[in-house]
């Protein structure tokens, strides 16, 4: 069991005019990594930012924070090199957005980044499975991608449980509507990388929310290892 509990705030719901400061604030509050949502207005009906913003953020907050790029874009191949040059650490692309996942995985690795592979709610986990041995992280979306602040889809949890049973040491991330009310279901199903946007960023006490989310995952990991 090689995986550990990590919490990565999504800064989509933060004050975007203060993005550098917001990222610093999340790291100061105990975030393990930062989940940066890139949307192109085509793969999803919303637009956020691209690699120039990532480059500025990297310059602003220094080399240490891990940037998990959630690429909600139609042509993920196009941004691999620019994102690597901008200082991204992990490139998480959508299976639905490419016809050649194998080649894209290779390109991401050659650019020096870790590989994340995401599936939308309508995509089965069996479609992701053939690539699971080649990736660092599987992202199971728990909302339709495009917007923060949506309701958690509990019916995605069987995907997480199945992945955990089939790939015991894979990093499994959940993203969308995850907060204190839904974390226990995610943790019990086997997710270990927790993205949380509005529940963390809009809280008066983000440090406590991050700690609560992380502890729920730590407890579930301990329980799983005792049950084995
Ligand atoms: O990728 C996405 C949405 O498409 C997410 O990263 C959300 O931005 C998470 O925000 P909450 O649902 O936790 O508010
Ligand atoms: Fe995301």
Automatic annotation (TrEMBL):
Active site: 37 (proton acceptor), 175 (proton donor)
Binding locations of substrate: 10, 70, 146-149, 177, 197-198
Keyword match Metal-binding: yes
Catalytic reaction list: D-ribulose 5-phosphate = D-xylulose 5-phosphate
Keywords (A to Z) from UniProt: Carbohydrate metabolism, Cobalt, Iron, Isomerase, Manganese, Metal-binding, Zinc
Residue numbers binding a divalent metal cation: 35, 37, 70, 175
Any Pfam family: Ribul_P_3_epim
UniProt GO molecular function: D-ribulose-phosphate 3-epimerase activity; metal ion binding
Cofactor dependence: a divalent metal cation; Co(2+); Mn(2+); Fe(2+)
UniProt KW Manganese keyword: yes
Function as written in the Swiss-Prot or TrEMBL entry: Catalyzes the reversible epimerization of D-ribulose 5-phosphate to D-xylulose 5-phosphate.
Assembly mode: Homodimer.
Family note: Belongs to the ribulose-phosphate 3-epimerase family.
Protein name, UniProt field: Ribulose-phosphate 3-epimerase
Organism of derivation: Cyprinus carpio
């Amino acid at each position: 069991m090689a995986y550990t509990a990590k919490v990565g705030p999504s800064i989509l719901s933060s004050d975007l005019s203060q993005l550098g400061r917001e990222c610093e604030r999340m790291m100061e509050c105990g975030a393990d990594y930062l989940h940066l949502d890139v949307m192109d207005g085509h793969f999803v009906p919303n637009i956020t930012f691209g690699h120039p913003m990532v480059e500025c953020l990297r310059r602003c907050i220094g080399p240490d924070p891990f940037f998990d790029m959630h690429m909600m874009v139609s042509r993920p191949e196009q941004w691999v090199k620019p994102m690597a040059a901008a200082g991204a650490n992990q490139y998480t692309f959508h299976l639905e957005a490419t016809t050649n996942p194998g080649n894209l995985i290779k390109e991401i690795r050659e650019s020096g980044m870790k590989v994340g592979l995401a599936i939308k709610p309508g995509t089965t986990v069996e479609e992701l499975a053939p690539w699971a041995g080649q990736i660092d992280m599987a992202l199971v979306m728990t909302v339709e991608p495009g917007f923060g602040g949506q309701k958690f889809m509990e019916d995605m949890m069987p995907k997480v449980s199945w992945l955990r049973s089939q790939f015991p040491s894979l990093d499994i991330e959940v993203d969308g509507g995850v907060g204190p009310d839904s974390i226990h279901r995610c943790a019990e199903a086997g997710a270990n990388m927790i993205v949380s946007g509005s529940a963390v960023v809009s809280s008066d006490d983000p440090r406590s929310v991050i700690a609560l989310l992380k502890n729920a995952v730590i407890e579930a990991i301990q329980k799983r290892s005792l049950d084995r």
